[in-house]
Amino acid sequence: MVAACLFLLIGCGGRPTMKDQFQTLSQRPDIDAATARYQRMQTEIRNRLAAELGPMEWKESHPVSRSGCADFADVPAAESRSLGLWSFPHSIPDDQWSRAVAIITEINAAYGFGQPGHRVNSPGHHEVLSVDPLGATYTLGTSVHTTLLFHTGCHLEAKAHPANAAKPTT
Fold this sequence. Notes:
Distance between the termini: 58 Å
Structural class: alpha+beta
Shape: elongated
Number of domains: 1
Strand order of the largest sheet: 1-4-8-7-6-5
Oligomer: single chain
């Protein structure tokens, strides 16, 4: 009997309600504002790498895509996005990789991302990942070519965000 009561208490109290999930997302910028911010950061990374490590002609190969949010599955207006995949057809040389990591570390600080962590760090193949407090991630990798990909965390659609309630719709 005690075990059954304990199970019910833990089971019922462990999962946030839809109201709690919505409240959490209401404290974040809406998905459009978050996307614009991460796109600015992505542009800054590309521009700084090109300016400081040599010419890099970045090309976007995949458009922005949208998806739901597993962590906020009860909120229908919750959305995450994968920003366009940017790449250029050459690798960052091993002797410049530490400078590339220093550049993104500096940019990370301005945007609230954590220290980039190496997922791969071997001669001719490097990849780092960084995360911000809202669950956004980006990966910068280099091998045969170099890629930069961002994923937002979960945010409310602009039309569902309480901060936008008083704004006129277009």
